[in-house]
Write a structure and sequence with these properties.
Blueprint: E1 4-10, H1 17-25, E2 32-38, H2 45-55, E3 59-63, H3 70-80, E4 85-90, E5 94-95, H4 99-110, E6 114-117, E7 119-123, H5 129-139, E8 146-147, H6 149-156, E9 171-174, H7 175-184, H8 194-205, E10 208-212, E11 218-222, H9 234-258, H10 263-285, H11 288-302, H12 304-324, H13 334-345, H14 353-382, E12 386-392, E13 404-408, E14 422-423, H15 434-437, H16 440-449, E15 454-459, E16 462-465, E17 479-483, H17 486-492, H18 496-503, E18 508-511, E19 514-515, H19 526-532, H20 538-551, H21 556-564, E20 567-568, E21 574-577, H22 578-597, H23 611-629, E22 636-646, E23 665-671, H24 677-689, E24 696-703, H25 708-718, E25 724-730, H26 732-735, H27 757-760, E26 767-770, E27 774-776, H28 780-784, E28 793-795, H29 799-806, H30 813-820, E29 834-837, H31 839-845, H32 848-855, H33 863-872, E30 876-878, E31 885-886, H34 892-895, H35 902-911, E32 917-919, H36 935-942, H37 948-957, H38 980-988, H39 994-1007
Parallel strand pairs: 1-2, 1-4, 2-3, 6-10, 7-11, 12-13, 12-15, 13-14, 17-22, 18-22, 23-24, 23-26, 24-25, 28-30, 31-32
Antiparallel strand pairs: 4-9, 5-11, 6-9, 8-10, 15-21, 16-22, 18-21, 19-20, 26-29, 27-32, 28-29
InterPro entries: DUF4422 (IPR025536), Glyco_trans_2-like (IPR001173), Glyco_trans_8 (IPR002495), Glycosyltrans_8_dom-fam (IPR050748), Nucleotide-diphossugar_trans (IPR029044)
GO molecular function: glycosyltransferase activity; metal ion binding
Protein name: Glycosyltransferase family 8
Length: about 1000
């Protein structure tokens, strides 16, 4: 038995094979056998092998009758090997003379199943020397010895130990282990990624691994054969993808058949590593014109998320390279080409590790691109001749503009520094004075640090209107708008070209000088406006007047004229040419410094501390009036001021990318307002106390007015659950412009928020929606896991509605359901308080805008619920009744539910014995009637929440006469206050009363909706 078997795979390598064989036969160590397997070469490789075997009896020549690929060629060689140890040598590589001698000596000391040696890399076919050095350094990197399961983990487990390569041609194996491994491998043809597959199986079956990287007698020719870097086309690349996939399938089959510990993770590690290598070929070996087709083919083989991830990896790396090397953006750069292709193959994702891995890479790539864009924006902004600084202390939307530049201000910058803004604490500054000086800290910073021809100043809420259109103003002289969006940019010309055009040729631009006899309650004069301000001290206005007259006596006449006049511009907004701005600052700040030095503000309120900022607004007017009086000759312009009420940055949710088991996530959505905080807290607590600790609950609360304090209290309270993430999403912007009203006074605007879920959580394919007037006794993960198939949602039938269908006297609910709703089977009508939403299918079928339009239909009784029943009929999975057990509201079990079909009513009654979710639907709630049906279950949870006292107050208010408590702490109703029902019906039949319910039934009868 020879000590070492050398297995040579040869296919069409006649050019290199003689040198390969000569390097083997010249080994200083002779106890070897040389098994050369010719894989049906079409050149003279076979003849070379046979001739060599005739010359050296150690050479065993084997010829395949037909080409079988590298894996099966090696398999043939392993089956024939008789040596104690064996290694693979490719037919186009060579060995140093003492290579086998070094291996023999080392293996005698280590006795390892695997001896991992180094290589010497020689570049062929125009491979650059630096590429060779990098490849050699990677493969010769030091590795540690390992035993048993750690051997395979070091190579394939991304979360464990070393990152060891999987090259089987760089290892000496114990032959009996090698035979066992190849015997366990597939007998199917494998190519390209066969090294990874073979190394996977061999490592899994080995007991010991020893590193011998200092031995580098294997001479590897980089650039020959399939490892080359020659250009390929898209069709060839797709073939490569399929070859890799065949190796993945074979690996997975081995994992499953051998029940390998941690096999799934190891398999995933292999596929990730291999796809990265394959994707590198996509980047380097394909022409740009071929890359789209190749990526589409790759996505068909490996899936869109895996493919898009690799493309975003290239985007990330290129963006990072440009960032760190200060490379300017070129829109023709390959980075944008890669991003476009990635976007073209992206599909709606699912909650899988592959999706999250892709999202992590995409987010990082976009983060770097955003930083790169910001870096370029800063460069452009630095050279802008016009700079208008927008003061802000919070994250806000801003028009896309190089002229308009956000400046973060305030003493808290260091704790929460916005990365994409300027900062008033850089350079020479008075940032610490922001509580007193307000936006003046931006002006001071710009004066001392910025370079421009024009210096302008706005606020994050207030901008100039650069359009020529006259917009309606409020009584305070402001144009009011809501969001800073594309429409606002268009309406007020908040773009660089328009701003430049509006300013060109002027020395000073301000807001309009308004007549104080007609605005601000007609107070009349600036002095009177100051006196009317409750937080400002009258003496302070007089004090700055005295300081001004002392430092600049020639301004006294202008100060008197302004303070006793009736015109003023407001908001400390202006744009000035550089010389004027510098003169103004040199005049203004010494005045304020003297005021601050000589004024005791230690007992001032927070608003009164802002007095220097308020004074500067007056001083600006005096400064402008003075220069007008003395004939400075400045050309001035007045623009309207636009006040945005909702400038805050648009919120969007991101997937929980830091959670390593995305398949265990349960996304849950509630809708609530500030008055309903105690209720949604109770509901959520009941859910979490019954939740599976091995699942992770991503909870989103859709709202538009929950106070920051209540959000903070809820977040603190629920921090006790480590398997939960609580997020608040303001949806006001998303529902703006829709007429979400109804004739049903029990329906609040929050009920429509469920139609937003598919767009707010685009990264989930399935989402659980729950009303906030429920308690949960079961694990909602079980509910979420229900298979929806192709159906749009899962829900329970509505026992109340079905009962109404069968009420005979005066009942037209059946006609309403068939004629208005158009339901083919009225008895399939479901309750919408507990829903498992197939958001992927819903997105494909309806847009959010369509849902909201449907919900605005005035013909519907229960707009949200009716809409879902109309547009989802035939696509509903019906839940076990226990998942939505509606309580007995005012005797409806006997008076309404009992009219439902017999089997349905029996199922409902049975569900009451063990409800998983109790739904307090209707006008009777535990907080209005603490003795109602199932109230004791509700209060079991409610007593534990930090808002318990608020619920008790609600109970106490329930004993107040109805008329007095009519509008106390209710959801915002979708039924407007000006509605006839509000003005006439409410006083006669208050909300929640039996008289109201009776009148409602009469109204429905008249309208044909019973």
């Amino acid at each position: 038995m020879p000590k070492i078997s050398i297995i040579v795979a040869a296919y069409n390598v006649e050019q290199y094979l003689p040198n390969c064989l000569a390097s083997i036969t010249a080994q200083t160590f002779n106890d070897i056998e040389i098994i050369v397997v010719d894989d049906a070469s079409t050149d003279h490789s076979g003849d070379i092998v046979r001739h060599a075997a005739e010359q050296d009896p150690r050479i065993i020549a084997i010829t395949h009758p037909h080409n079988q690929g590298l894996h099966l060629t090696r398999k043939t060689g392993v089956e024939r090997a008789t040596g104690q140890y064996a290694f693979f040598l490719d037919g186009d590589d060579e060995l140093a003379p003492d290579f086998c001698e070094q291996l023999s000596t080392e293996i005698d000391h280590s006795h390892a199943d695997i001896l991992h040696f180094g290589i010497t890399v020689v570049g062929d076919n125009d491979i650059q020397p630096d590429e060779c050095r990098a490849f050699e350094a990677f493969n010769n990197a030091p590795t540690n010895d390992a035993t048993e399961h750690d051997i395979i983990r070091d190579i394939f487990d991304p979360d464990f130990g070393q990152k060891v390569d999987w090259r089987v041609t760089q290892r000496l194996f114990r032959t009996n282990v090698l035979k066992s491994a190849f015997n366990a491998m597939t007998s199917s043809r494998l190519e390209r990624a066969e090294d990874g597959y073979e190394c996977f199986v061999i490592s899994a079956l080995s007991q010991s691994y020893h590193s011998f990287k200092q031995c580098r007698g294997y001479i590897y020719h980089y650039g020959r054969g399939v490892t080359g870097t020659s250009e390929i086309n898209a069709a060839t690349y797709v073939v490569f993808c399929k070859q890799f996939k065949a190796c993945f399938d074979a690996t997975l089959s081995f994992v499953n058949s051998h029940q390998l510990p941690g096999g799934d993770s190891l398999y995933t590690g292999f596929t990730h590593k291999a796809i990265e290598l394959l994707a590198n070929d996509w980047r380097t070996r394909l022409r740009p014109s071929e890359q789209l087709i190749a990526a589409q083919g790759m996505a068909q083989v490996f899936g869109a998320p895996a493919t898009a991830r690799e493309l975003y990896r290239f985007v990330r790396d290129r963006a990072y390279e440009m960032l760190t090397n200060d490379i300017p953006i070129n829109r023709d750069d390959e980075m944008f080409h890669w991003q476009t292709i990635a976007q073209s193959i992206e599909l709606p994702i699912e909650s899988t590790k592959e999706d999250y891995r892709y999202l992590l890479m995409k987010n990082k790539a976009l983060e770097y691109m955003s930083q790169l864009e910001h870096q370029e924006s800063v460069k452009r902004s630095e050279t802008q001749p016009i700079k208008i600084f927008v003061t802000t202390h919070k994250r806000v939307d801003k028009p896309s503009s190089d002229i308009l530049q956000l400046v973060q201000v305030g003493p808290g910058i260091k704790d929460d520094r916005f990365p994409d803004t300027l900062h008033d604490d850089d350079g020479e500054n008075i940032s610490e004075k922001n509580p007193m000086y307000c936006e003046l800290t931006t002006q001071y910073w710009a004066w001392k640090n910025a370079k421009a021809d024009y210096y302008g100043f706005c606020h994050y809420r207030r901008y100039f209107d650069f359009s020529q259109e006259e917009h309606v103003e409020n009584p305070y002289g402001e144009v009011m708008d809501d969001y800073i969006d594309a429409k606002a940019v268009h309406d007020y010309h908040l773009d660089d070209a328009s701003i430049t055009s509006a300013i060109s040729g002027y020395d000073i631009v301000t807001t309009r000088f308004q007549d104080l006899q007609t605005i601000i309650d007609g107070v009349g004069t600036p002095k009177a406006v100051w006196k009317a301000a409750p937080y400002l001290q009258n003496k302070d206005l007089r004090h700055i007047y005295d300081i001004l007259c002392m430092q600049h006596p020639d301004y006294k006449i202008d100060a008197d004229a302004f303070l006793d006049g009736h015109y003023s511009c407001f908001c400390n907004m202006f744009i000035m040419k550089k010389a004027i701005f510098f003169d103004y600052c040199a005049w203004l700040f010494p005045l304020l410094e003297e005021f601050e030095r000589t004024t005791d503000m230690s007992h001032y309120s927070k608003e009164a501390l802002r007095t220097p900022g308020h004074l500067s607004e007056r001083l600006l007017n005096i400064y402008l009036m003075h220069h007008k009086r003395i004939g400075s000759g400045w050309k001035t312009k007045e623009l309207q001021c636009v006040h945005f009420t909702r400038p805050e940055e648009q919120q969007s949710l991101a997937p929980l990318l830091n959670y390593k088991q995305p398949e265990h996530i349960v996304p849950v959505v509630f809708a609530a307002d500030d008055n309903y905080v105690p209720m949604v807290t109770t509901t959520l607590l009941s859910a979490m106390q019954n939740a599976d600790r091995d699942r992770y609950y991503d909870v989103s609360i859709l709202q538009k007015n929950i106070t920051p304090d209540n959000q903070s209290r809820m977040s603190t309270f629920f921090s006790q659950f480590p398997n939960m993430k609580l997020r608040f999403v303001n949806v006001e912007r998303k529902i703006a412009g829709y007429n979400l009203s109804t004739n049903n006074e029990h329906i609040s605007t929050e009920t429509y928020y469920r139609f937003l879920i598919q767009s707010i959580l685009p990264f989930y394919q399935k989402v659980l929606y729950l009303d906030s007037d429920i308690v949960i006794n079961g694990d909602i993960a079980e509910l979420y896991d229900i298979d929806l198939g192709d159906n749009l949602l899962a829900a329970c039938r509505d026992i109340d509605y079905l009962g109404n269908l069968n009420i005979k006297i005066g009942n037209k609910r059946m006609a309403y359901t068939k004629n208005i709703l158009g339901m083919k089977d009225p008895y399939q009508y479901f309750q919408a308080g507990v829903l498992v939403l197939n958001t992927r299918a819903m997105r494909e079928k309806y847009s959010t805008e369509q849902w909201l339009e449907y919900a605005s239909n005035p013909k519907f009784i229960y707009n949200d619920q009716d809409v879902l029943n109309v547009h989802c009929q035939g696509k509903v999975t019906y839940l076990d009744w226990r998942w939505d057990v509606v309580h007995d509201c005012d005797g409806r079990v006997a008076n309404v539910f009992s009219y439902a079909p017999n089997d349905i009513f029996d199922a409902y009654i049975q569900s009451r014995n063990n409800p998983k979710i109790i739904h307090y639907a209707g006008f009777v709630k535990p907080w209005s009637d603490p003795t109602c049906d199932f109230a004791e279950v509700y209060w079991h949870y409610a007593r534990q929440i930090p808002f318990y006292e608020k619920l008790i107050k609600r109970v106490a208010e329930s004993v107040v006469p109805n008329q007095e408590r009519l509008y106390l702490h209710r959801h915002e109703p979708a039924l407007g206050e000006e509605n006839l029902m509000r003005k006439v019906i409410d006083p006669l039949a208050p909300l929640g009363s039996k008289r109201r319910e009776f009148m409602k039934s009469i109204g429905r009868f008249i309208r044909g909706r019973r």
